[in-house]
Design a protein that fits this description.
Collagenase (Catalytic Domain), 3 strands, single chain, 6 helices, alpha+beta, three-stranded mixed beta sheet
Length: 151
Amino acid sequence: MCPPARARLKKMILRTAELAGLPVQQELFINITFVGDRTMARYNREYVGHEGTTDVITFCYLEGEEPLLPGDVAVDLLICVDFAMQEGRARKDSSYARELALYIAHGLLHSVGEDDLDPVSRKRMRRREREVMKQLEQEFDFSGVFPEAKK
């Protein structure tokens, strides 16, 4: 697995945040940590109460008791690269790089209040994901942001 192209990733994250509706004009940070299955399963159990791995876990601090100041972290995303690799291979219309971009979009949509716990909200989340991903696909080469190691 190759590390992401940091400058391209930063641009894509900022654009995704803008498309999701986050207050990108403020000097707030979005922190993304890429983890493997074992680490994600541990976080999923500890913070979400679910067993096993998952694609992304979102921690949003925008609605906290204290207002955020410039330089504060507004959103933390934990993204599972092993999950992205598995899903990218399993889906004919996807790839490792596209899955990672989707997980960023999905996590940032969660941070603005979108949810996918019931059928109605899940349908809205999927629609918003498609809208965001359609725009991102026009502006970014996902495999240039998330290169795969050559075998």
